[in-house]
Amino acid sequence: MAMINWDDKYKTGNNKIDTEHKKLIDLINQLSDAMQAGKGKEVCGKVLGELVNYTKTHFAMEEQLMATHGYAKTSEHKAEHTKLVKDVLDFQSKFDAGSITLSVSLFTFLKDWLINHILKSDMALAEGIATR
């Protein structure tokens, strides 16, 4: 069962951003499904790794757009990216070390963060770069 369902309200109007957001949602859903199905640490770890790597790729793409278009709120937006990457890498390290497991609270955090980031920061980004 999907933890997050794509909805038109998440559309920024930038096809590249929207396509990558759909992929991030898909990876969060895959990770949630693997946890709920009781898949082993190896499977969950692999999907978590894909999520971490794709998040970095997505953020790099957004940051390139900001630089290309001279986006006014670049530093604030990049700070949000940096914090999430740090938080997720910390979680991944602890998961890989076996000191924590996947939990509902992690998925709630990821879901809330992604949705809020899309609806606020990424909508503003798409609007800001569309007007330049």
Oligomer: single chain
Helical percentage: over 70%
Strand content: under 5%
SSE series: HHHH
How many helices?
4
Corresponding CATH architecture: Up-down Bundle
Largest sheet: none
Structural class: mainly alpha
Count of distinct structural domains: 1
CATH homologous superfamily assignment:
Hemerythrin-like
The level 1 CATH classification is: Mainly Alpha
The mean pLDDT is 88
Reported by name, the CATH topology is: Four Helix Bundle (Hemerythrin (Met), subunit A)
Task: Give the low-confidence spans.
Answer: none
N/C terminus separation: 40 Å
Radius of gyration: 15 Å
Task: Give structural notes.
This protein has one domain (14-130): Four Helix Bundle (Hemerythrin (Met), subunit A) (Up-down Bundle). Helices cover 77% and strands 0% of the residues. The mean pLDDT is 88. By secondary structure, the protein is mostly helical. The longest helix has 29 residues, at 41-69.
